[in-house]
Design goal:
Trigger factor, domain 2; five-stranded antiparallel beta sheet; four-stranded antiparallel beta sheet; 11 strands
Length: 428
């Protein structure tokens, strides 16, 4: 007997009755699993009968394995036959005192399930018109970046240190007149305006002249990594030795040719290619913004409840992804976070938020796909398999063996639903 009660929008309570016959089978299963290792005087190892075993050890010694066996069978059958979409391991509640050989027993499984989505407004959402044109200024800015990347640092022999200059200087820091570890260096090279030093340091260097010495008054941030310096006022004595300034190359056909970009050898070709790349990037960025808006609004307007267990499972998946990224750099996750300047507590909190957002988006898009009857065609499925085969240089049959058709259909349905939502936006 199976009885299912809804606890909330994301959890159900399943009461399951295990028959006497099934529990008897479970006890037999339990005994067979261990009898090969049982040694009782007068019997060869593995040859003792169940009745003799129970006489020596009691039938209760078989209960744990027998109960687990029965629960596994009946729970799987219950959720399968009743189309319960579970999303996490169940919590089992069983009063062990009710279990007795020769009788059946009852237990309760509380399990997180895929939430029921009640959609709100998702079609015809109003969206502000985006900039869809790349200007000449945009192209020039991109080319200026390119020139800056190919600039040379040359000595600035007169004048004052300016923002964007590179300074070569000595410094020594102290707190209450006492120098601290790591606060001293000679001939240190720093791009002024880069923000490499603590707040207030670089701006105070602007205007210095060659050979000038100056005391800089700064305050270490409260979140500074060194505990002994957090929030402390400090003085840095600095002496400027050299100034360097970027000397940009001239934009000529010769310069462009030296870049060795395929199919580009003149200034006009560089500008045309830059315009094309910026346009493609803008189109994709605008599309991503429309998608994010459409799905976010659809999720906001929908009503549903995601079980904490489901969010935690998705969060763990995201953390695993970051862990794998860290391993590419031969780092443990903790080390990776430290190098990235991310607090572990903040990282986990952000992962939980990302997990909830990801699940919300996926669940809502999936529901819209069902309501709108958006499905993958045979042609689309075939094309997707061909795309994967080309990407990984595999045969079609190999791809089909590795990637099941349900996964392919799910991906296609998701993409088509996103396109549907974007196309339904009212741009004004």
């Amino acid at each position: 007997m199976v009885k299912i009660d809804k606890i909330s929008g994301s959890k159900v309570r399943i009461e399951i009755e295990v028959s006497k016959e099934l529990f008897d089978h479970g006890l037999e299963h339990s005994f067979n699993a261990i009898k090969g290792d049982v040694e009782i005087k007068g019997f060869r190892k593995g040859k003792v009968t169940r009745s003799i075993f129970e006489k020596h050890y009691g039938v209760e010694s078989l209960y744990e394995e027998a109960i687990n066996h029965c629960i596994q069978d009946t729970y799987v059958a219950a959720v399968t036959e009743n189309n319960v979409e579970v999303v996490a391991q169940p919590k089992i509640d069983l009063d062990i005192t009710t279990v007795e050989a020769g009788k059946g027993f009852k237990y309760v499984a509380e399990v997180a399930v895929k939430p029921v989505i009640t959609l709100g407004e998702y079609k015809g959402l109003k969206f502000a018109k985006q900039n869809d044109k790349v200007s000449d200024d945009d192209v020039q800015a991109e080319i200026d970046k390119l020139l800056g990347q190919n600039a040379e640092l040359v000595l600035k022999e007169e004048g004052k240190l300016a923002n964007g200059d590179t300074a070569i200087f000595d410094f020594e820091g102290s707190v209450d007149g006492v120098p601290f570890d790591g606060g001293k260096a000679e001939n240190y090279e720093l791009l002024i305006g880069s923000g490499q030093f603590i707040p207030g340091f670089e701006p105070q260097m602007i205007g210095m002249e060659l050979g000038e010495e100056k005391d800089l008054q700064v305050t270490f941030p409260e979140e500074y990594q060194a505990e002994n310096l957090k929030g402390k006022d400090a003085v840095f004595k600095v002496k400027l030795h050299e100034m360097k300034v970027k000397e940009l190359p001239e934009l000529t056909d010769e310069f462009v040719a030296e870049l060795e970009k395929e199919g580009i050898s003149t200034v006009e070709e560089l500008k045309a290619d830059t315009f094309k790349r910026l346009t493609e990037s803008l189109i994709q960025r605008n599309k991503n913004e429309r998608i994010d808006f459409a799905v976010s609004e659809a999720a906001k307007n929908a009503t549903f409840e995601i079980a904490e267990e489901m969010i935690t499972e998705e969060k763990n998946r995201l953390v695993d992804n970051v862990t794998q990224q860290a391993k590419q750099y031969n780092l443990e996750l903790k080390q990776y976070l430290e190098f990235s300047g991310i607090n572990e507590e903040d990282f986990n909190a952000n992962m939980m938020k990302d997990a909830e957002k990801s699940l919300s988006f996926n669940l809502v898009v999936e529901e819209i796909s069902k309501v709108e009857e958006i499905t993958a065609t045979e042609e689309e499925i075939t094309a997707k398999y061909e795309e994967i085969a080309a990407q990984y240089k595999m045969g079609i049959e190999q791809v089909k063996a590795a990637v099941n058709v349900e996964a392919v259909m799910q991906e296609i349905n998701y993409r088509k639903t996103l396109d549907f939502l974007v196309e339904s936006l009212i741009v004004e």
